[in-house]
Amino acid sequence: MKQANAQIHIENLRLRTFIGFNESEKKNKQDVVINAWIDYPAVEASQTDDVNKAVNYRTICKEIIHHVETNSFLLLERLTSDVLTLCMKPSNVCSVKVKVEKPHALRFADSVSLTLSATKDTD
Description:
The chain has a single domain (6-119), classed as GTP cyclohydrolase I, C-terminal domain/NADPH-dependent 7-cyano-7-deazaguanine reductase, N-terminal domain (GTP Cyclohydrolase I, domain 2). Helix content is 31%, strand content 37%. The chain is built from four helices and five strands, in the order βαβααβαββ. It has a five-stranded mixed sheet with strand order 3-1-2-4-5. A hairpin with a 7-residue loop joins β4 (95-103) and β5. α3 (57-70) runs antiparallel to α4. The two termini are 25 Å apart. It holds the Pfam family FolB.
C-alpha cells in the first residue's frame, strides 16, 4: 500500500511582534496567530520509526518563534512569507501553507489574515 503525504499542522501559535506601519504599531507589540500546514512524504518515517526520516516540527516552531519575536514587520505579507520560508527549509518538505492572523486589526472584525503557500520543484 502506498501512503499519501503526511501533513503536520502547527495550530494557533500565538506570538507577539511589531507588525504594521502606524506609529502605535511600530512602538507596541501586537498579537499574531500563526497556522502552518507542512506536507512531506512520511512513508519511511512511519515504517521505520526513525526520527531522522521525519520533519522535526519542534525545530521549525522554535525557529518561527525566534524570528517573529525578534523582528519587526510592516506588512502581513512579509511576516507570512518569512514563516513560509522557515517551514520550507527541511529537505523532505514538499509543500507548505501558512496563515497569519492579526487579531482586532479592524474595528468590527475578529482578525485580518493572510495565507501563502508554496511547493518545491521536483525537477
